[in-house]
Sequence to fold (396 residues):
Amino acid sequence: MENNGPLKGLVVADFSQLAQGPWATQQLGDMGADIIKIEPPKGDWMRHYSYGNLYPEGESISFVSFNRNKKSIALDLKSEEGKKIAKDIILKADILLENFRPGVMERLGLGYEEIRKLHPGIVYCSSSGYGASGPYLKRPGQDLMAQSISGGAALNGKRGDVPVVTAVGQADLLTSLFIVQSVLAAIYSRSISGKGQKIEANLMNSAVGFHIQEVTAFLHKGENPEKSASGIPNPWLGAPYGLYNTKDSFVAIGMNSVQKVAQAIGFEKYDSAEFDSNNIIEGRDEIRFDFDEVFKTKTTDEWLEILLEHDIWCSQVNTFNEMVEDPQIKHNQMIIEYEHPTIGKVKTTGFPVSFGETPQQIYKPAPLLNEHAGEILKEFCNFNDDEVTSFLNAPK
Fold:
């Protein structure tokens, strides 16, 4: 399948592993960039780890999730040959992305100061746990730690509960998004100035930045918000915001006036001007518990019909099996499938954003380790057939 995405022609030297780097480069690849995934001889760490220990036909579901639309070559970056090949790839790249611990690329002779002497136009992005300097420099950085340090985990859950981190790797994937927007901004800057630059991203900053509204409110109030005892999802918010039990599942109620919701569900206790607010803090737990008892009397579908007729901000609460069958999810084509040479059909998420003139598509499945070595060596390093054969047959 032909690649004709909006970033066609852009080349990315991808040294990243795990999640935040690979999802960033996958997004660039989905938009048409040529992603050269440079892996260690045994492959990206994620090839040997998978959510749920799912390895269909021996392939990691986690690796497959983050690495479509890429080419793979396995290099020993501690060897002179590996470094030489890596530099040849970098010289023809527009963007370099790495997420080793700070200092590793410098020790390999592939740090920014070394590379920009060879390629002044390179956009060089490093991503780490906490940044390239500071008191946490030598600490291992990972999503759970970044979420915990950022303060976000302490906002989640009920009063008295253990702090709750999100099930999805929030810090990892937020960093991916920040990387994508930043490297593309740097490419635009280069188109004007002709100069590349170094970009530094990290998990902790991403998680803190994500909580801009919550942190700003704290800084102005001067004290931590108190979490709800009844399970209102955000400690800064009041009734009626939250999830409620219904006869068969749950319903989500957004930013609505308590009085308006009470009128819609026929609950006279709160049908007065006193409750004409969409963010009642004092007494919020009592309101939520009272509403919960009413919502338990009908099914979710019955409530949605009533609530939507009254223009209440509300929705069903889908599990994954319900989400993939949701009519709007299907309409938006957010569940797609492609062919993988080992697994066969891979089902995954679609493209969150659409382009009218340069539509995104999957033109390459997640690569097998070293699958594209010959193609990459010929294109980037001018290897002939004998040299490719020698490289592929060398002991790893």
